[in-house]
């Protein structure tokens, strides 16, 4: 049974997450749904003019053309042309359409940071281009899991940039978790293999391996990621258990192109969207998840170490329409 103090703390942290999410999505909310409110004002029905306005608003918010068309078609199915609506009714319909889209892509509403503990260690391979906040996301994930008393190992398989190795080492020291590196210019696959070995020897619960973020040719990217994955699997059959693609939401349609490059190169199992607080392009979360059928697992809504959140589709959509 929860004590009164535990109940208070749970409510406090839930409230803080909601506030951080609302603040992080402020620019998207003002950009996307500020325009939507103006489009709805004075309207008494969903007509062709409104649908044209809605299409333009969604595309400008980087939802993407294909997903925008899908949303509009579903809206038309739910609302007869001559049905009179108020703003609240229309917002509720759009909210449920977007939530349903996210649910179709196996995006689960996680209550807290979690991973499959039926095997040990659990290995997460993190991919993405430089500048997306990839290494920072690894550090923030380590922080969250370390705070839940899991033994975490960070592996520096981005061996092409000294800054990446140093940055990850700083995060490991800051968090208080284990760090493994073979230095710059080491073979990334060898680093991944030996990181996994180190985690097994130290009886770690979780391994998070950072990889190089270069977008070179698809062929080279595929070969490199395949080699890394195979090396991990040789040491620990079935691993990596997750391949997480980190995308910068501020880049809008470029994030969609990055997702295409990496999903062509490897089997991505989940997404982390960073810097949602940095632009009005949060709609890209909807488009990427829908187009690539990959669940969103984490979102970054600020620079603080606790501003990485598990993705909750209903809370996300509610915040957009708040």
Indicate the topology.
Blueprint: H1 4-24, H2 26-40, H3 48-60, H4 65-78, H5 87-104, E1 122-127, H6 134-147, E2 152-157, H7 162-175, E3 178-180, H8 188-201, E4 206-211, H9 218-235, E5 242-248, H10 253-265, E6 270-274, H11 284-292, E7 296-300, E8 308-310, H12 313-320
Parallel strand pairs: 1-4, 1-5, 2-3, 2-4, 5-6, 6-7
Antiparallel strand pairs: 7-8
Task: Give an overview in words.
The chain has about 325 residues and is of the alpha/beta class. It folds into two domains: about 5-105, Up-down Bundle (Four Helix Bundle (Hemerythrin (Met), subunit A)); about 120-310, 3-Layer(aba) Sandwich (Rossmann fold). The protein has twelve helices and eight strands. The chain has helices at about 5-25, 25-40, 50-60, 65-80, 85-105, 135-145, 160-175, 190-200, 220-235, 255-265, 285-290, 315-320; strands at about 120-125, 150-155, 180, 205-210, 240-250, 270-275, 295-300, 310. It has an eight-stranded mixed β-sheet with strand order 3-2-4-1-5-6-7-8, with helices on both faces. Helix 10 links the parallel strand 5 (about 240-250) and strand 6. Helix 2 (about 25-40) packs antiparallel against helix 3 and helix 9 (about 220-235) crosses helix 10 (about 255-265). The radius of gyration is 21 Å and the shape is elongated.
């Amino acid at each position: 049974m929860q004590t009164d103090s535990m109940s208070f703390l749970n409510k406090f942290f839930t409230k803080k997450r909601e506030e951080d999410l609302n603040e992080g999505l402020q620019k998207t909310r003002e950009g996307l749904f500020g325009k939507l409110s103006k489009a709805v004002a004075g309207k008494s029905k969903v007509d062709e003019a409104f649908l044209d306005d809605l299409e333009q608003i969604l595309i400008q918010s980087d939802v993407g053309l294909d997903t925008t068309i899908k949303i509009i078609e579903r809206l038309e199915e739910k609302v007869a042309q001559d049905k009179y609506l108020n703003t609240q009714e229309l917002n509720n319909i759009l909210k449920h359409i977007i939530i349903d889209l996210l649910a179709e892509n196996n995006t689960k509403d996680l209550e807290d940071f979690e991973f499959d503990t039926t095997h040990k260690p659990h290995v997460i391979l993190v991919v993405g281009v430089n500048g997306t906040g990839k290494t920072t996301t690894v550090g923030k994930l380590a922080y969250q899991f370390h705070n839940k008393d899991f033994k975490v190992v960070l592996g520096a398989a981005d061996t092409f940039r000294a800054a990446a190795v140093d940055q990850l080492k700083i995060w490991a020291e800051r968090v208080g978790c284990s760090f493994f590196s073979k230095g710059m210019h080491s073979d990334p696959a060898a680093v991944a293999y030996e990181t996994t070995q180190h985690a097994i020897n130290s009886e770690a619960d979780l391994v998070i391996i950072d990889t190089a973020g270069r977008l070179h040719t698809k062929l080279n990217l595929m070969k490199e990621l395949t080699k890394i994955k195979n090396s991990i699997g040789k040491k620990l059959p079935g691993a990596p258990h997750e391949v997480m693609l980190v995308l910068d939401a501020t880049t809008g349609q470029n994030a969609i192109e990055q997702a295409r490059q990496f999903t062509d190169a490897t089997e991505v199992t989940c997404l982390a969207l960073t810097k949602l607080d940095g632009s009005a392009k949060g709609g890209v979360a909807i488009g990427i998840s829908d187009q690539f059928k990959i669940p969103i697992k984490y979102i970054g809504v600020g620079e603080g170490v606790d501003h990485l959140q598990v993705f909750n589709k209903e809370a996300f959509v509610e915040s957009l329409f708040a």
